[in-house]
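Entry 14. Ran structure prediction on the chain below.
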Amino acid sequence: MEKRLSEFLKIAYEHGRVKDLNDAFEEYPIDEEWHKGKVENVLNENGESYNVYEIGDIVFVKEYSYPDGKTGNNHFFVIIDQDNTAVPIENFGMLISSNLNKLKFKSNKLLEKDGINNLEKDSLVKTDVIYKIPNEQILFKIGIVTYEKIEEYKKSFYDSLKNKD
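Output, structure tokens:
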């Protein structure tokens, strides 16, 4: 069966901007995040348990294994797109970080905490890379990002392609 990806994901793949989840934490170390990668530090944020996630959901992704056997740490992501032709569904997300020092990079966009996203601190969304997030790596959903914000992140992604190619 041929994969039918969205135009957004086709362009992301064509430009080599879709990465495996194990590549997500090199630039944004977990020890610089407010939750330090500990689930117990996040659970007070109204974590909701789901099996199906949607575009715009902010999810907490659990530990995973790097190819060299080391363990990666927990982190927040916003689901930006999905491939519904695969079973199970593949989620594609952008990393969320509370390290606001990295807002100096043009592709990082401010995401202010509010009652919809349920973040504990103002954070940023890294919009220049898309990460593949298997459902089994998602521990829970904590909130959502509006459709308008998702469109802003996609526009920033496209802008980053123009500036680097």
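The chain has a mean pLDDT of 80. Will compare against last week's run tomorrow.
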